[in-house]
Amino acid sequence: MGSLSLAPLLEAARLAARLARRLQANIPRLEKDKDGSREVVTLADYGAQALLCRALSLYEPQAAVIAEESGAQFRQLLSPSQQDELATLLTDLLSEVVTPDQVAEWLDFGVGRQAARTWIVDPIDGTKGFVMGRHYAICAGLLEGEVITNGLMACPAYEGIVGGALFYADEGVCWREPLEGGLPEQVRVASARSPEAVRVVHSLERRQAVNARIEALLREAGLSQAQIRELDSMEKYALVACGEADILLRLEELDNPLPRYVWDYAAGVALVQAAGGVVTDIEGCALVFHQGAILPHRGFLVSSGPYHADLVRAARSLGE
Predict the structure, then answer these.
(1) Which of 115, 122, 164, 293 could share a disulfide with 139, CB 3.0–4.6 Å?
(2) Alpha carbon distance 54, 52 (integer Å)
(3) CA–CA dist 17, 40 (Å, integer)
(4) What is the pTM of this model?
């Protein structure tokens, strides 16, 4: 791995996956107000972010962090007994005493700091999938200057390996290994397939994926026979990175007023690019991650490469 090893963060992601599995069977479902809408958040979101940011505080203390959750929100939304419950679970996982104050401190590590390296953290991506017992991912991507470079993604419900998989991008190479431990293997995006064999993934969230627009885009790109799968979370990027999918589309409602946050994309972009794939907005431009928490784009095209130009052309033709 690179000079600043991903190893501590990979171990933190494994711990976060263990925590998530413990909590998934009995989930206190909280709600937070986000841009005027109500969103579900769980103890696992706070615990996973605390574990990842704890690792950063120990091994990369000068790093900046952009993350979805916050210490203030943890204090506001969780009752004292829920805060204590999470601290007890973390104490057990880490074999060290953890208090609610320590959890809040970890959640806010690196926030607001200016640094050469910024970690972008989404502790439980696909929270609705997590709550419903479906797919979710524990994610972190590294922004260096204006470029997403390294990243990691723990996918506990990944179907290709018993127990789930841990994907990570390091120094331009994408790796996959069993989440519960095992030898890593390098993965690459798929080679060109015939149009009828192309596999497309998109979100289960209707605000993020409008079926009629996706079907129109694929038809215009000559891919009307492509196989389509709906899936929760950023795990879709991992499927493109390891060749199990060829294209990921995010074509949301045209009047969707909600912003697009960097933590929903950074880790996935790192994996796909390291595996040899392509990620752009629907106009074919590179994604802009260095302007803060919000991405200035309204749609995304992710692919193994061979059909990317066709997708961009189709989007322009349809006026996307």
Answers:
(1) 122
(2) 5
(3) 19
(4) 0.94
Asked if 253 contacts 198 with a C-beta cutoff of 8 angstroms, the reply is no
Nearest-angstrom CA–CA distance, 16 and 10: 10
> Is the CB of residue 130 less than 8 Å from the CB of residue 42?
yes
Matching residue, tokens 């210490």: 71
Q: Largest Cα–Cα distance in the chain? A: 59
Residue 102, burial from CB neighbour count under 10 angstroms (0-12, 13-18, 19+) = middle
pLDDT tens column, 41-90: 899 999 999 999 999 999 999 999 999 999 999 999 999 999 999 999 99
d(CA 151, CA 237): 12
Both tokens of 257, joined, read 């007023």
- Cα distances from 201 to residues 8, 62, 178, 213, 214, in angstroms, run 31, 37, 22, 14, 10
Enter the DSSP assignment of 286: P
Integer Cα distance of 284 and 116 in angstroms: 27
Q: Which amino acid is at 242?
A: C
CB atoms within 10 A of CB 286: 14
The Cα 278–Cα 240 span in angstroms is 10
% helix, strand, coil for the chain, step of 5 = 35, 25, 40
Neighbours of 137 (CB within 10 A): 32
Pairing of strands 117-125, 64-67: parallel
Q: What are phi and psi of 143, to 5 degrees?
A: -100, 120
Structural domains of the chain, with CATH: 7-187 (3.30.540.10), 195-318 (3.40.190.80)
Q: pLDDT tens across 245-277, in order?
A: 999 999 876 667 788 999 999 999 999 999 999
Rounded Cα distance, 80 and 92, in Å: 18
Q: What is the distance between the alpha carbons of residues 97 and 99, in angstroms, rounded to a whole number?
A: 7
What crossing angle do the helices spanning 100-107 and 43-59 adopt, rounded to 10°? 70
The secondary structure of residue 264, as a DSSP letter, is G
